[in-house]
Structure formats: structure tokens, C-alpha cells
Write a sequence for this structure.
């Protein structure tokens, strides 16, 4: 049974920074006219349009980032397996 190495300090800090940014993001402000229009729409419909845009951007970014992250992880695991196989072959 093999154990996984602990994540590096860089990976841990990167994950913490991503989590903090996702939690602490404030809604983006717009020009005064757009802001007034959004507030008027919110009063009429009860729907926060600015929050909808923020969430839609995060959702649209999640797919490509997941694909890139998955591909990177697959390449990393493949590299780890190849180096383990090379180590066994030389012994």
C-alpha cells in the first residue's frame, strides 16, 4: 500500500487563496445609470440581477477550469506512474 505525498505548501496556499477569493468576492459596481437600472429591476421583480451575473460568470468559468485542472491532474498522475515504473525496472 502506497501513501500519497502531502500537498506542497504552494498548492495549499493556492487552494486557500482560491477559497478565500470565492467567499469574499463583493458584487461588482457598475456605472451610475446601470446601477440605478439594476436597482429598479430588483424592486420590480425582486431578482438581484447583479448577483445573477456574478454567479453566471463563476459557473461559466468552472467548466474550462475543471477541464484544465483535470487534464493537469491526469498528466501529473501519468508522470508519477511512469517514474514509479522506471524505478521498479532499474532495481
Amino acid at each position: 500500500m502506497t501513501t500519497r505525498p502531502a500537498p506542497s505548501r504552494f498548492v495549499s496556499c493556492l487552494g486557500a487563496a482560491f477559497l478565500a477569493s470565492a467567499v469574499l468576492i463583493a458584487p461588482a459596481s457598475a456605472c451610475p445609470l446601470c446601477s440605478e437600472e439594476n436597482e429598479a429591476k430588483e424592486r420590480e421583480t425582486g431578482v438581484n440581477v447583479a448577483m445573477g451575473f456574478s454567479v453566471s460568470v463563476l459557473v461559466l468559468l468552472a467548466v474550462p477550469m475543471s477541464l484544465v485542472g483535470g487534464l493537469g491532474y491526469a498528466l501529473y498522475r501519468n508522470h508519477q506512474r511512469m517514474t514509479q515504473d522506471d524505478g521498479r525496472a532499474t532495481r
About this structure: Residues 48-91 form one domain.
